[in-house]
Design goal:
Elements: E1 2-8, H1 18-37, E2 45-51, H2 59-68, E3 75-80, E4 88-94, H3 97-107, E5 117-120, H4 128-132, E6 137-142, H5 147-150, H6 163-182
Parallel strand pairs: 1-2, 1-3, 3-6, 4-5
Antiparallel strand pairs: 4-6
Helix pairs in contact: 1-6
C-alpha cells in the first residue's frame, strides 16, 4: 500500500524553476529525509515521485499512471505540491466525506504552526489521473499572492524561496503523509 508524495522537475526555460516546481519537489523529497532521520517506519510505503514533462502536458504522469493503474487499489492517497512553497495555510483535498473527516483530524496536529484548513478539491495535473479514478488526493495550499509574479518567468529563481516558509511546507507535507501512511486502515473511498 502506497502514500505518494510528489512535485515535478521540469520547468520553463526562462527561469530556474525554483518555485515551479523545485519547491514542490524539494518538500516531497524532504518527507522521506525527515522520516528517515527520525527513525520512523510507517505501516505503508511512502513513495516519492518527481514527475517529468508536467509542463508539456503531463506526459510523465500519464505514463506513470499507465504503468501502475492495475495497482490502483493499493494507492492510499496521492499528494502533489505544484503551486509554490510560500506560507502554507492547509491542504486541498479530493475524496469522500469520511476520508475528508480523517484528513481534517490530521490537520489539527498542525495547530501549533496555524496550518489547519482543508479546502475542497486537490489541485495537481500529475495526480489528476488517480483522483478521477477514486484515489483520494491532496495538494498544498499556500499564500499565492506572489505566485504569478514568478510563475513561468525569468523571476522564478532560487531567491524566491524563503527557507522558513519551505520548512513549514515540508512540515505540513511530512505530518500529513506520515500519519496517513501509519493509520491502521487506508483512507475510505
Amino acid at each position: 500500500q502506497i502514500v505518494l508524495v510528489s512535485g515535478h522537475l521540469d520547468s520553463w526555460d526562462v527561469g530556474q524553476g525554483a518555485m515551479d516546481d523545485g519547491g514542490g519537489a524539494f518538500i516531497s523529497w524532504e518527507v522521506l529525509s525527515l522520516i528517515k532521520d527520525l527513525g520512523l517506519r510507517p505501516k505503508r510505503t511512502l513513495r516519492l515521485v518527481l514527475w517529468t514533462a508536467e509542463e508539456e502536458g503531463g506526459i510523465g504522469a500519464e505514463q506513470y499512471y499507465q504503468l501502475h493503474k492495475e495497482n490502483i487499489s493499493n494507492f492510499d492517497i496521492v499528494m502533489e505540491s505544484d503551486e509554490g512553497t510560500f506560507r502554507p495555510s492547509g491542504l486541498g483535498f479530493t475524496g469522500n466525506a469520511k476520508a475528508r473527516s480523517i484528513v481534517k483530524e490530521i490537520m489539527t496536529l498542525l495547530q501549533p504552526i496555524n496550518v489547519t484548513d482543508v479546502y475542497d478539491n486537490a489541485d495537481g495535473t500529475d495526480i489528476d489521473y488517480w483522483m478521477r479514478n477514486g484515489v483520494p488526493g491532496a495538494s498544498l495550499h499556500d499564500d499565492l499572492s506572489k505566485y504569478f509574479w514568478f510563475h513561468h518567468s525569468q523571476g522564478d529563481m532560487m531567491t524566491v524561496q524563503d527557507p522558513k516558509q519551505m520548512n513549514l511546507c515540508a512540515a505540513v507535507w511530512t505530518v500529513v503523509s506520515y500519519v496517513i501512511a501509519d493509520l491502521e486502515e487506508m483512507l475510505p473511498r
